[in-house]
Amino acid sequence: MTTGWKASDIPDQSGRTAVITGANSGIGLATARELARRGARVVLACRSEQRGKEAAEHISREVPGALVEFTPLDLADLSSIRDFARSYAYERLDLLINNAGVMALPYGRTADGFETQFGVNHLGHFALTGLLLPHLLRTPGARVVSVSSGLHALSNIDIGDLNSERTYRRWIAYGRSKTANLLFVHELAGRLAAAGSDVVAAAAHPGYARTNLQTAGVRMEGRRAAERIVELGNRIIAQPAESGALPTLYAATAPGVRPDSFTGPRVQGWRGPPAKSWRAAWTTNDVASERLWVASEQLTGVRYEGLTS
């Protein structure tokens, strides 16, 4: 991995199409802007129509001539995910960046009854990737990049309680959802290889980046003191969203990125240029990744046609 890799090192993306979930703010917006700057057609897949359109306008102002568009996508609703996949207007899909996520929310459920963090962070992206798989498979050199977190280390998944119905601890649930992201990439990479596909499935994480992700949970509960502490940490410790996006951009565009790799910031996994990241041993467990895959197919009703175990 090249020392000091930066956004200006992104290869030319002209003629390529990227879908980025949660691209209306934070590292998703920064990722979308840099890919558009290098010539990619970028589809902003966002829940909020207003914020998605504002993000598209923001990118167009910063990158004259940018090929950028908004398409609605609510990862907490399988019907919305299916609508997005049906409406996808392009034959090819070079980059699918599973970036959107929620963190440490109070207990809640998605439209389909899944615990919110597991449902949005893992199951929503599992369903989206499966439904867009035909476009990926027909596109030479396509990549799927799933954004996990160093906080996956908080917990392995509990295959017997994926929706945290027995007990719910918000940070443990978050860690499990981020572990699920890595297990998904591990299993997807193996299945793509077995099918003889050149699609690369990789993972990345932003370290500690300055976004609205950290404050959402405490704001929902009205915990003003906790919100102020988080905001202070964002200002003093966190790196800018633009820096947090670099591991994702590296995994999506740099030459030679290996399947099932995990890229994060170089300096203690918190900040700095992209580098190979540590991951817990449980995230490369073949039995766990297959069991999660089977459970995810059953829960979402999405099958990955052409990819077998």
Question: Can you describe this structure?
Answer:
By secondary structure, the protein is α/β, with parallel strands linked by helices. It has ten helices and eight strands. The protein has helices at 26-37, 49-62, 78-87, 116-137, 170-194, 213-220, 224-236, 241-244, 246-253, 286-300; strands at 17-21, 41-46, 67-72, 95-98, 143-147, 200-204, 262-267, 271-276. Strands 3-2-1-4-5-6-7-8 form an eight-stranded mixed beta sheet, with helices on both faces. Strand 5, helix 5 and strand 6 form a beta-alpha-beta unit. Helix 4 runs parallel beside helix 5 (170-194), helix 4 crosses helix 10 and helix 5 (170-194) packs across helix 10 (286-300). The chain is globular and about 50 Å long. The two termini are 30 Å apart.
Provide the fold topology.
Layout lengths: L16 E5 L4 H12 L3 E6 L2 H14 L4 E6 L5 H10 L7 E4 L17 H22 L5 E5 L22 H25 L5 E5 L8 H8 L3 H13 L4 H4 L1 H8 L8 E6 L3 E6 L9 H15 L9
Parallel strand pairs: 1-2, 1-4, 2-3, 4-5, 5-6, 6-7
Antiparallel strand pairs: 7-8
Helix pairs in contact: 3-4, 4-5, 4-10, 5-10, 6-7
Organism: Streptomyces agglomeratus
Keywords: Oxidoreductase
GO molecular function: oxidoreductase activity
What are the main properties of this structure?
single chain, 309 residues, alpha/beta, Rossmann fold, eight-stranded mixed beta sheet, 42% helix, globular, oxidoreductase activity, Short-chain dehydrogenase, oxidoreductase, SDR_fam, NAD(P)-bd_dom_sf
